[in-house]
Design brief:
- The protein has one domain: START domain (Alpha-D-Glucose-1,6-Bisphosphate, Chain A, domain 4), CATH 3.30.530.20.
- 28% of the residues lie in helices and 41% in strands.
- It is built from four helices and seven strands.
- It has a seven-stranded antiparallel beta sheet, covered by helices on one side.
- A hairpin with an 8-residue loop joins strand 2 and strand 3.
Length: 138
């Protein structure tokens, strides 16, 4: 297994952050890691979507877990490995919110692909979370 986590605290409310997460069609407006997104349904467990990173091939994914206002998890299943990213909101002291992005790569090929693919997938997490927070703090 390969894993990585990035978090930041903000004054933005969980409700404001959740609005941006649950509006999948608008993700490219604040996430520079998405050139294009095609969503095959509502923001609900089982919905499939295709994200195209700038200058890269499209990636097919699906939503596998949602707890409204708290977290959602998406998954890319490549057969011999699976990439799952949990997006979580935690209330912390002082009325602040911690935004957490956590990625795990599991499966038979995880030990082989994780050290290369994992850092490539998560490299922009600090920028993506910062952009989300800036938008939600407005």
């Amino acid at each position: 297994m390969w894993e990585y986590e990035h978090s930041v605290e903000t004054t933005a409310t969980p409700e404001a952050l959740w609005r941006h997460w649950s509006d999948m069609a608008a993700w490219p407006e604040w996430n520079d890691g998405i050139e294009k997104i095609e969503v095959g349904g509502p923001f609900a467990v089982g919905t499939r979507f295709t994200m195209t990173p700038p200058g890269d091939d499209p990636i097919e994914m699906r939503l596998v877990e949602i707890t409204p206002g708290e977290l959602f998890t998406d998954e890319m299943d490549a057969g011999d490995f699976v990439v799952r990213t949990e997006h979580r909101l935690e209330r912390v002291d002082g009325g602040r919110t911690r935004v957490v992005y956590r990625t795990e790569i599991t499966g038979a090929a995880a030990e082989q692909v994780g050290p290369q693919l994992g850092p490539a997938i998560t490299a922009d997490f600090p920028e993506v979370v910062a952009a989300l927070v800036a938008r939600a703090e407005r």
